[in-house]
Amino acid sequence: MKISLGTPRFDIVAIADTGSDLSWTQCKPCSQCFKQDAPFFDPSKSSTYRKVSCSASQCIDLERTSCSTDHSCQYAVSYGDSSFSDGDLAADTLTLASTTGRPVAFPKTVIGCGTFNGGTFDEKTSGIIGLGGGQVSLISQLRTSVAGKFSYCLLPISQAGNSSKINFGSNAIVSGPGVVSTPLVKKSPDTFYFLTLEAITVGTKRIKFTGSSLGSEEGNIIIDSGTTLTLLPSDFYSEVESAMTSQISAKRIEGPEGLSLCYNANDEFKIPDVTVHFTNADVKLKPLNTFIRVSDTAICFTFNPLDDVAIYGNLSQMDFLIGYDTQKQTVSFKPTDCSKN
């Protein structure tokens, strides 16, 4: 996702993440940074950049903050894949492109200026845009301007190198034929967007979801644009996998570490239809959502077991226009060719 920071505007490309709140970018001077193609943001060059004090509510609301000698707020964030960022909590003007052609500026937006960062980031990105539900997330900070609405359309892996689209406000309303909507469930922590998964159908077999560590009833799965695979509790995953293997005639092979079910990519086989049944919303996945080519020889299932956790990851979300309405408390899905959206 492209944004601009500071005055004068400085362009940044960062990963849009619905599973975290703080937006941050790598900053000069950097004590440890991952390699990025674009230059680092230099806060000393921005006339509107201000550090946030330790006593400010934004600092107090954020977990894992500390106070530096100049009484400014230091943040530390980490992610499920062990990526991390530490640095100064600050406020600066954030600018977004607009459908009118005129960029829209949001002064005093709270961001992280990361000076100690690492993890699984590639060179094309310089940080994270936090789209979660917490107080410091971009959605919460822009709430009145965008009416609590945003949508995105994630491009398939085959379109790697192109940028997926994200919309805010009235442009983020997902409507028209094929749209299904499911309630957002308010739970703690407020960062996450909780949905209710009722079942998954593989081909002709419907497997009832009995719940996860998040609960057995409402709000038993998190939808997260920053997690790649769809992760399911081990017992439930086993049932889904056996339904899948019983309907595929090809021979299983050993795939890369971390992927449970793989086949020889050169074998011709039909991938069974997979439908994810959320409350009031049956989301029918395409083969590009359920299997991914990981090498010349291996094609692997994009669902994986993980203890007692349930996360609906971004491979399952590709080629869907997905709209979040935090006022109406709904998430909507519309099958879409995201390269044309």
From TrEMBL:
SUPFAM superfamilies: Acid proteases. The keyword Cell inner membrane does not apply. It comes from the Eukaryota. Residues 1-334 form the Peptidase A1 domain. Keywords: Aspartyl protease, Glycoprotein, Hydrolase, Protease, Secreted, Signal. One of its GO terms (molecular function) is aspartic-type endopeptidase activity. It is found in: Secreted. GO terms for cellular component: extracellular region. GO terms for biological process: proteolysis. Its main location: secreted. PANTHER family: ASPARTIC PROTEINASE CDR1-RELATED, OS07G0603500 PROTEIN-RELATED. Belongs to the peptidase A1 family. This is Peptidase A1 domain-containing protein. It comes from Gossypium mustelinum.
